[in-house]
Design goal:
Blueprint lengths: L21 E7 L3 H14 L5 E7 L6 H9 L5 E5 L6 H10 L5 E4 L11 H9 L6 E2 L15 H18 L11 E4 H7 L12
Parallel strand pairs: 1-2, 1-4, 2-3
Antiparallel strand pairs: 4-6, 5-6
Amino acid sequence: METANTAAQAPLGPAMPRPADLTVVVPCYNERRNVAPMVARLATALEGIAWEAVFVDDDSPDGTADAVRDIARHDPRVRCIRRVGRRGLASAVIEGALASSALYVAVIDGDLQHDETRLPIMFSELRAGGADIVVASRFAAGGDAAGLAAPWRHGLSAAGIRLAGAMTHTKLSDPMSGFFMLPQKLFEQIAPRLTGQGFKIL
């Protein structure tokens, strides 16, 4: 008669990294030169918070995925999802967020335009339970819309804000933002209703 050998699950020890409370999803395409600076900035901004960064790369020809993996080999907080045959910011965000096991998920652009020092503030707001989602706005007090360099981009953004507000009946100063945070369970709930088309998802 065969018997099954069982072993107790090994306890978390010094060699085991602490599970992440926050996953930062970084959709990227041709951002190789920004990968290391992004990780360094996240490490500084999120000191004291158990975090991970999931770079979702749309098969960048500049070797973005290789740059992420080079760091991931010695930093377990960094992961790479390399997507071949599919492309788009919205679908990259969905894929990265659904790959998270953390309590909260943040989305930040890979081009370093967003202020990563806002992440701890956003994290604290969500943990306090006062909101379902926190959005970093270019148009709130202290915000900066410098990333919209061309006048036509300012006009396009303003039109998008008015349209989004009319459609959702939600007062939000920057519904076109690519920098936001929400509970991972909430993302799981709404994911089946999201579309992966386009370059905006908020």
